[in-house]
Structures are given as structure tokens and as C-alpha cells.
Amino acid sequence: MKSRLGLIALVALGLSLPSGLHAQQAPEAFRGSGKLVVNNWGGPTVERMHAAWYGDFSKATGIEVSFTSIPDVAKLKVMNQVRNVEWDVVDFEGSQMLLAMKDDLLEPIDYDLMFKLVPKEQLDPAQMTKYGVGSIAFATIMAWNTETVGKKGPANWAEFFDTKTFPGRRALYARAKPTLEIALMADGVAPKDIYPIDIDRAFKALDKIGPKVNLWVEKTSQWDVLIQNKEVDLMGSSLARTMAQIDRGEPIGIGYNQSIMEQSYWAIPKSAPNIKDAQKLVAWMMRAEGARAALKLLPYYSMANKAALDGIPKETLARLPGAPENSANSLTIDAKWWLENDAKVQPRWLDWLSRR
Amino acid sequence: MTQIEASAQEGQNSRLLPDAASGSLTAWQRQQRGLTLSLMAVPTLAMIAVFVMPLLVLLWMSFGGGGKAGFSLQGYIDLLQPVYLKLLFFTLQLALLTTVLCALLAYPIAYLMVNVSSRFSAWMGMVLFMTLWLSFLARTFAWIIILQRRGLVNNFLISVGIIDSPLELVYNKLGAYIGMVHILLPFMVLTLIPAMKAIDPAYVRAGLSLGASPPRVFRDIYLPLSLPGLVAGSMLVFTLAFGFFITPAILGGGRAPTIVMAIRDQIQQLGDMQLAAATSMVLLVFCIGLLFIYDRVAGVDRIYDKGGR
Predict the structure, then answer these.
(1) How far apart are CA B266 and CA B67, in angstroms?
(2) Nearest alpha-carbon partner for B174 in B228, B253, B272, B100
(3) Fewest beta carbons within 10 Å, which of A6, A332, A346, B234?
């Protein structure tokens, strides 16, 4: 643990130097001496990104940060019940945050404190909610093997399932979300008209595309294996995983049209051990410097701080799902719709999938 | 049971717990009983804390305990949707077939390990144990490398000219079975070995010398004597297979959805603890029911007997 913290501190130090915000300059309101436990999705990618995000937080404020994984609302609920909440800051997916809100598990974000550090106008209002502020947006995109499918792949989901133009094996997530959305877009529904989802129509559309899907993917880590082994030719895959494989030299093309974005949020559990310092860290992570450093490391995510895009090289910008030209025709998951309808959709989805 | 065996059994029982009905206890017997009871207190308490309490909490939750809506049968009513029955049925099928396949494969392996030189069997044991050290996930992904379309098996078969296009060995039910059998096989082997070791080779020799054919000796002497190990191993493998999650999820390629995946979604996606608890209780009832049937057919009490009876 210690060595990892050390490494993060080292990375943080390296990143903080050009940022211009030095240790001595941390505002008085941000000083502290406590310890924070951040619950995130784990793995080397997240670790690197967070190291960039946190920047010199510990050094500047005196507040220590350690990490655990993985965000789980049910676990938080139980921890809350037995009055032993271990997490100070959690990186929840949108629907997880809403689920946690339903059970009254979250503490409101202290925006007054945040605006002392980050100019309000830099932040995307759509990502600032009462109980959570945007952490990352991850994307599901169309990807294809350029050796078997060709340089030019499908331009939209309808083309994606056109087996005449694009013969090959296909893979999608074994989840209702975002497969229902994909099925509807393949059926000709425009991204802006997807919600509220017409469930019956979605399942009818699923029946049409279902036979064309050779493989249903359970875990995001499977994309690496599938791409490296050329197991499938076309996929609705995780942008981050696919980009990582492209950077390794895999012959993969991707399209941003009708990509599907899902917003995650930083949230602070109610009865977290150190709410006060947790608010400081959440505010700290909204700084453009940290977000920019994270984007340079891993240009696969979109950030709440729009100023982070300033000064990002053009070629990096072209790969960001949140860049204006890439997000023009994208779909953002409606977490609220899913919270309200998942109990209805889930059994039907499982039933549908079990007939494959 | 012969007279001698019966009296030996009695002797064993009285050694464990002195018979109170016989009235007069010697000081030694009283002391021994006190010792036995105090030694049993710790495991009994541990059993209650670790097994019984969580089950009771789960039962309580399945009726809405700890939730906002109060007590209700809603969890069980939601479970009546046909999809859950279907998943339960498939999970049962998966677990049963996995158990049978494991038994068929493990039996000769265990037989070999018991009967070859101890050095060779130690090596076999090492190899078997080694697979237990690796994580489920790592082994699951290893199977993908072997079974996928451009995997070892398909590449070999194509290069030799046996097949033209790759076989679908993974990302379907077949893949799920292969992965499950591989992961659960060591458990079956390891429970079979002691049962087979306890078989007195004199019985087999006697059978052969009295003129029975080797298959007959196996059927009438060896197999019945090794049955306790087979019963114990089957129950262990079945129970583990019933609750298996990650291997069928990945190797099944979405085509082997089990009831456990439904429970995961109920907890993580829907946050419906009551439904998840109710599903778990139904699973538990099914497992107990099967255990009961198994007991009637094969006799669970055999597990606790010595092999040689």
C-alpha cells in the first residue's frame, strides 16, 4: 500500500509542476489532516487516471488518500445499516447514484466550496447534480476489425447489423443497457428519440438483431481478449478498452456516430467517516489541470470540466468521446429511466437472452 | 451388520458420549463427558455464528426485513415469473451434468493416484493442486485461449486437416461445461482419494482368487466400497456448481445464464435485496431437497463411515 501511495505521490508531483498550482497555494479552506478512502473501479487504468486527477492534493492539503474498489450500492447500503461506512468518496455510475439516492445514502455536494477552487463557468451544468458531480463518461462505440471488415466500417447501428455489406461475427454486451438502445437505433430510432424507451418495440428490434450476434460479453475485460484473438469482426465495445488495443497496434477501426455515453459521478456517502475532507477532494478533482492531465494520459473519457479541453492537442481531441464533433450524434444513457424501469426490463431481458 | 461390527460401533459411541441411561457414571466418565461438551461448545457456537445466523438474516430479508416497504411476500411473488424458473432449471441441469462428468473423469484419475507409486501420485497431486492455486478468472481466460476460434485446439485441427472451419468450442454451453468441469474436477478427485485409500486390497484379491471376473470385482466390491467418496465428492461438486457464476458467464458467451447471474443483477442493478434473498432461499430449499433425495438413493451417512464396510 505504502509503495503505491508513494508512486502516486511521485506521479502527482511530476504532474503538479507545470500546472502552476503549488503546494503552498492550496486555499486555507482546503487544508486538513485527515485520511480519505476513495472507492473506485480499480485496475491500472483507473489508478493512472486518478493519480493525474488527484494531482498534488495530499501534498497541498495534508489530507491522505487511499483506494479501494469496487463501487457497489448494495454494499454501501449494508455498511450504512450496520453504521460502518468505509468509503469517503465513491465513483458511482449514474444509475448507481440514483439507486443510492433512493435509499438516502448520499451527502449533498458542497458546491460553494467547489467554486472557491474551480470557476463555476468551467463546469458542465449537466454534470452537476445535488448528490454527485461528473467524474467520467465512458462510451460504448462501434468497432471493427479493419483486416476483415475493411477500413470503412458501419456508420451507424443499422449498418452495423447489415450482414450483407459487413459479413462477420458480432459481439455485444450481455446487458440490457445499452443493448436495448442499440437495438432501437438499429431499428431506425434517432438517439434523441430513444427515451423513454418503448420496451415492446425494443424487444421486437432485439429479436431482429439477436440472431446476428455471435457472442454476448459479460465483462469489460473480455474485449481485450476478443480483439487480440480476432474472435469477432464487429463489436459494440468499450471505447477505453478498444483504444488501448488500437494503441497496442491491433487493426481496429472505430466510429463515434451513435456512440453511447454513460455518465459517472463522484458521490460522498452519508455517514462517511470524513465528509469534510471528502468535499475538498471532490472539489479538487474538478480542476481543469487535473482533468487535462488525466485526458492526456487516457484520452478515452469525457470530463466535467470543459476547460480541460483547452490546450489538448488536436489529434487527442479527435479521439475524445466528449469532443464536440464526436458527441454530436451520441446518446447519453438516461440513468433515471433505467432506475425506474430496470425491474421490469431485467427479467424480460434475461428471458430473452436465455433463448439465444 | 455383523455382531462384531455392531458391538464395535457401540463401543465407539460410548467412547464419544458416555451413555447416561445406564445410570451410574464413573468419575472418569463424568469428566470425559464434561470435556466433550466443553470442546463441542466452540464449534457449536461458531456454527451458529457463521452458518445459522446469516441464514436467518437472509430468511428475514426475503420477507422484506430491513427494507422500507415492511414485511411482505413480494420477493417470492416476483420470483414466480417464468424466467426465474427457467434459469433455475438450467442451473440445475448445468450443476447435475457437471457433477456427473466430474465423477466420470475423476474416478479413473483418483484410482490411478491411489494405485501408482507414491512418488508419481505426489506429482499428480501437485499438478492437481496447482490448478487450485490459480484464480478462477485466470483459468477461465486460459480456456478461451485454448478453445477459441483461433485457439490451440482449432488451429491444431485445421492444420492437421481434420476440419476446414473452426469449431464453436467456447462462448456457448459447451464452453461453460468444459470450464466448470475443469475447475471442479480437483474437488472430486480429492474427496475420492481417501475413500479409495481406505479400501483394503485384500477384498479385491479375495474376490479375484474366488473366481470373480475383474469387472465383477469392480462392480460388486470396489465400486460399492468407494461409494462414500463418490457421494461426498458429488455433493461438494454439485453445491459448488450450483452457485457458480463467473465461468459460465464468460465461457458461456451469454448462452448459459444461470440463476446466480439473476441474483447478482437483483442486488447490484436493481438493489432489490428482498428479491435476491428470496431467490437465494429458493436455491437453498432446492439444494436441501436434492440432498434429501440423494440421501434416500445413495445414503449420505456413508460419508461418515469408514470406507471398508
Answers:
(1) 14
(2) B253
(3) A6
Give A-chain residues touching B265 at CB under 8 angstroms: 346, 350
| Facing residue for A225 by CB, picked from B82, B144, B149 | B144
Answer for the pair B114, B196: CB distance below 8 angstroms, yes or no: yes
Question: Is the Cβ pair B90, A354 closer than 8 Å?
Answer: yes
Q: In 3D, which of A224, A235, A253, A257 has the Cα closest to residue A179?
A: A235
Backbone angles phi, psi at A249, to 5 degrees: 100, 10
* Complex-level ipTM beyond the 0.85 threshold: no
Q: Which of B171, B244, B264, B273 to mutate to test the interface with A (most CBs of A within 10 A)?
A: B171
The answer to whether the Cβ–Cβ distance between B249 and A219 falls below 8 Å is yes
Question: How many other C-beta atoms lie within 10 A of the C-beta of residue B174?
Answer: 17
Kindly report, residue by residue over B280-305, the tens digit of the pLDDT.
Answer: 999 999 888 888 887 777 766 666 65
Alpha carbons within 13 A on the beta-carbon side of A103: 26
**Cβ of A74 and B268 within 8 Å?**
yes
| CA distance linking residue B30 with residue B25, whole number of Å | 6
Short-list B246, B132, B250, CA closest to B189: B132
User: What is the least distance, in Å, from the CA of B254 to any CA of chain A?
Assistant: 5
Closest-CA residue in chain A for B271? Answer: A74
Q: For A20-65, what is each residue's pLDDT tens digit?
A: 444 446 788 888 888 999 999 877 777 787 788 888 899 889 999 9
**Is the CB of residue A257 less than 8 Å from the CB of residue A88?**
no
**pTM of structure:** 0.82
Instruction: Check: CB of residue A87 under 8 Å from CB of residue A56.
Output: no
Hey, what's the cell of A254?
Answer: 472505430
Cell of B153: 485446439
Asked if omega into A8 is within 30° of 0 (cis), the reply is no
CA-wise closest residue to B110 among B232, B247, B291:
B232
C-alpha cell, A193:
428519440
- Grid cell of A232 as nine digits: 469477432
Chain B residues closer than 8 Å to A225 by CB: 141, 144-145
d(Cα B262, Cα A340) in Å, to the nearest integer? 18
Question: What's the number of CA atoms in the CB half-sphere (13 Å) around residue B2?
Answer: 4
- Written as nine digits, the cell of B158 is 485445421
Q: Where are the alpha helices (DSSP H) in chain A?
A: 2-19, 43-54, 57-61, 73-81, 94-102, 111-117, 157-160, 176-186, 199-209, 222-228, 239-247, 275-284, 288-297, 314-317, 324-327, 335-354
How far is the C-alpha of A321 from the C-alpha of A242, rounded, in Å?
13
Q: Which residues pair with A137 in a beta bridge?
A: A263, A302
Contact call for residues A236 and A182 (beta carbons, < 8 A):
yes
Who contacts B154 (Cβ-Cβ below 8 Å, separation ≥6)? Answer: B147, B148, B163, B166, B167, B169
For A88, the 3-state DSSP assignment is coil
Q: Which amino acid is at A125?
A: P
| Residues across chain A | 356
A147 by DSSP, 3-state: which? coil
